[in-house]
């Protein structure tokens, strides 16, 4: 059973989305990846959203650039939590993606993270936090990650000397 569906609008999003995949793997969160374009594959998108819960996913992470309708349209077709990752684009540096994802109407929530790689990593962490509410192994991995992060930050003080 996959815990997370990692969906991107285009294969060109993979370099940023790979940050999400790598961190999910580090946290021992199972996932699988899909390319589903909101604009070029609308029927596939609707079907995926409507059947995601039946496929036993617990969280959907949806990364999209430009008009970035993917996270919102998935959220419109499921009651699973959807985390939107705005892809950093060349045209408007990801602001178009961010605004498209974050401006959801009342009643169709999408949790939105930062633009680009930082957001991609935070999406993995947010998904893990959601899963950790029910999964003690994911919780332990998340706690260990936080401890490593703190240790690395503390040790970075040595670079100042």
The total beta strand count reads: 5
Query: Termini, distance in Å?
Result: 49 Å
Name the helix and strand elements from N-terminus to C-terminus, one letter apiece. EHEHEHEHEHH
Strand arrangement in the largest pleated sheet: 2-1-3-4-5
Strand content: 5-15%
Tell me the number of structural domains: 1
Return the CATH architecture. 3-Layer(aba) Sandwich
How many helical elements? 6
* Alpha-carbon Rg, integer: 16 Å
Q: Identify the CATH class.
A: Alpha Beta
Report the helical percentage.
40-55%
Tell me the overall shape: globular
What report would you give on this structure?
There is one protein chain. This protein has 161 residues and is α/β, with parallel strands linked by helices. It has a single domain, classed as Rossmann fold (3-Layer(aba) Sandwich). It is built from 6 helices and 5 strands; from the N terminus they run βαβαβαβαβαα. It has helices at 14-26, 42-51, 70-76, 95-102, 116-132, 136-155; strands at residues 4-8, 31-35, 59-64, 82-86, 111-112. Strands 2-1-3-4-5 form a 5-stranded parallel sheet, with helices on both faces. Strand 1, helix 1 and strand 2 (31-35) form a beta-alpha-beta unit. Helix 1 runs parallel beside helix 5 (116-132), helix 2 crosses helix 3 (70-76) and helix 5 packs across helix 6 (136-155).
């Amino acid at each position: 059973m996959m815990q997370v569906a990692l969906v991107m609008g285009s294969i060109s999003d993979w370099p940023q989305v790979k940050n999400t995949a790598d961190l999910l793997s580090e946290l021992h969160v199972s996932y699988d990846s899909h390319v589903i374009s909101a604009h070029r594959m609308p029927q596939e998108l609707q079907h995926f959203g409507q059947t995601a819960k039946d496929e036993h996913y617990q969280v959907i992470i949806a990364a999209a650039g430009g008009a970035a309708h993917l996270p919102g349209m998935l959220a419109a077709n499921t009651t699973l939590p959807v985390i939107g990752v705005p892809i950093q684009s060349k045209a408007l540096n990801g602001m178009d993606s961010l605004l498209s994802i974050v401006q959801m109407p009342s009643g169709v929530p999408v949790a939105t993270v930062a633009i680009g790689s930082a957001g991609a990593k935070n999406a993995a962490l947010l998904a893990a936090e959601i899963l950790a509410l029910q999964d003690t192994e994911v919780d332990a991995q998340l706690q260990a990650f936080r401890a490593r992060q703190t240790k690395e930050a503390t040790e970075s003080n040595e670079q100042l000397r």
